[in-house]
Specification:
There is one protein chain. By secondary structure, the chain is of the alpha/beta class. The protein has 2 domains: about 280 residues, Zn peptidases (Aminopeptidase), CATH 3.40.630.10; about 120 residues, Alpha-Beta Plaits (2-Layer Sandwich), CATH 3.30.70.360. About 35% of the residues lie in helices and about 20% in strands. The two termini are about 25 Å apart. Its EC number is 3.5.1.16. GO terms for molecular function: acetylornithine deacetylase activity; metal ion binding; peptidase activity; succinyl-diaminopimelate desuccinylase activity. InterPro entries: Cyt/Met_Dipeptidase, Peptidase_M20, Peptidase_M20_dimer.
Length: about 450
């Protein structure tokens, strides 16, 4: 079996009229800010997508019942017994503020040495245009017909816990149920240059902790006799987790659904993460919590984790201000696995803090999503794996879940379709960071893979 080189893929991309057309669509999508957290551009981008898919021949619904419109674009096959593929994507992005270094304007699609850059180019706008390119390429070659029904569903609040997605799915449940396969938003190649094909993700509950110890900040000379909000919160946080990362909240691990044998085997076979590789990638300065590879992988994929996202307390200006802070706050999260619910975990944390004598800590729920995990044994998923092996010289890495979070559980509960996540990214695509990027060769290979997936339903 021969595989195309990066140079060959670039040449094919440049000579492909359809791919070039939707590359310009991607350029426009990147230029249009669509940030749920800032309530920017959501209706404009949803409307634009509706126009793009209508022009491509789809029947389009743009439902703006809630803050972020929901876009459905349906391409129907002439076959009476045609199966259905659903592509789930999102058109919102995280911000690109001044705290992140960008070589070029993040909302201008730029190309340098075979790489394209821009906010959302991988997460997730580039995946939309690549998949639409594949659909149109097949249709042009086959008289504007398809061997399989294809539906795109695109939400605009994924980066903010998919607000109202559950409501939209309930509204269109009958229309969308019964798909043979649901292709998830995105994915990437790993450091071994293998395409990762994922079957799930962790859930999450994020929350704020607040402590008020006095009406005003107090002179620090009283530090030996008066407690401060800062010390109180630090002690409370320390009670939640041990120094190896184990959560110390009663009942958490009792609810965890353990992985089955196939899920364990997939991770053992395909996961290529280790303590040394993580240290190298991130330039770690502190010791790893887990050094044994088998233990590291089990915790990474199948165990919950508790993280401090940020702590704020006291004086942070120039010079010195000798005070006992009257207020302290923290943003924190727990990554969830099957068996755990956002509400249940937060209730357990509340009970733990009260039990340990930290009742003055106020908890505030901010967002939550359930987790989903698959053993990747559905026939339509196995078909994706077999096809992908024909396009990636280094092969594939099949994993039952990722350690990241998304609304897979919400979508699966509503639609019940087997799911596989794969996409156009690379190991250093920098999603959510500065200089978010995608290789044009990887972008075009994804187009070819999706076109082959469509062809496999002939």
């Amino acid at each position: 079996m021969s595989f195309s080189t990066e140079k060959e893929q670039l040449a094919k991309f440049q000579q492909d009229e359809i791919s070039q057309h939707y590359f310009e669509v991607l350029r426009t999508l990147i230029s249009k800010k669509s940030i749920f957290a800032q309530n920017v551009g959501l209706k404009e981008v949803a409307t634009y997508l509706g126009e793009v898919f209508t022009a491509a021949g789809a029947h389009v619904i743009v439902d703006d019942s809630y803050t972020a419109p929901f876009v459905i674009a349906e391409f129907k096959s002439s076959k009476k017994d045609a199966k259905t593929i659903i592509f789930y994507n999102h058109y919102d992005t995280v911000p690109a503020d001044n705290d992140q270094p960008w070589t070029d304007d993040p909302f201008t699609l730029s190309v340098h040495y075979g790489m394209m850059y821009g906010r959302g180019v991988n997460d997730d706008k580039g995946n939309i245009t690549a998949r639409l390119s594949a659909v149109r390429k097949y249709m042009r070659a086959h008289g504007d017909d398809l061997p399989v029904n294809i539906t795109f569903i695109m939400e605009g609040a994924e980066e903010s816990a998919s607000m109202n997605l559950e409501d939209y799915l309930a509204k269109y449940k009958k229309r969308l149920q019964g798909a043979d396969l649901l292709v998830w938003e995105d994915g990437s190649k790993n450091k071994e240059d293998q395409l990762e094909i994922l079957g799930g993700n962790k859930g999450i509950v994020t929350f704020n902790l607040h402590v008020d110890s006095a009406d005003v900040d107090i002179h620090s000379s009283f530090g030996g006799v008066i407690d401060s909000a800062a010390w109180y919160l630090v002690r409370a946080l320390a009670s939640l987790r041990d120094d190896k990362g184990k959560i110390l909240v009663d009942g958490i691990y009792d609810q965890v659904i353990p992985p089955n044998e196939r899920e364990l085997e997939l991770v053992k076979r395909y996961a290529n993460r280790s303590a040394s590789s993580l240290t190298e990638i991130y330039g770690l300065q502190l010791p790893m919590l887990k050094t044994d590879t088998e233990e590291l992988l089990r915790y990474f994929f199948f165990e919950p984790s508790l993280t401090i996202e940020g702590i704020t307390t006291g004086y942070q200006g120039d010079g010195v201000k000798t005070i006992l802070p009257a207020h302290a706050s923290c943003k924190a999260e727990v990554r969830l696995v099957p068996g755990l619910t956002p509400e249940g975990v937060l209730e357990a944390i509340r009970a733990h803090l009260d039990k340990e004598g930290f009742s003055a800590v106020q908890l505030e729920f901010t967002l939550g999503e359930m987790s989903y995990r698959s053993d990747m044994s559905a026939p339509s998923v196995l078909k994706v794996i077999q096809l992908a092996e024909q396009f990636y010289e280094k092969g594939v890495s099949v994993l039952p879940t990722s350690a990241g979070t998304g609304p897979m559980h919400t979508v699966y509960e509503a639609l019940g379709a087997p799911m596989a996540a794969f996409g156009i990214g690379n190991v250093n695509s920098r999603d959510h960071g500065g200089d978010e990027n995608v290789s044009i060769a990887d972008y075009y290979t994804h187009i070819e893979l999706v076109e082959a997936l469509i062809k496999s339903y002939e």
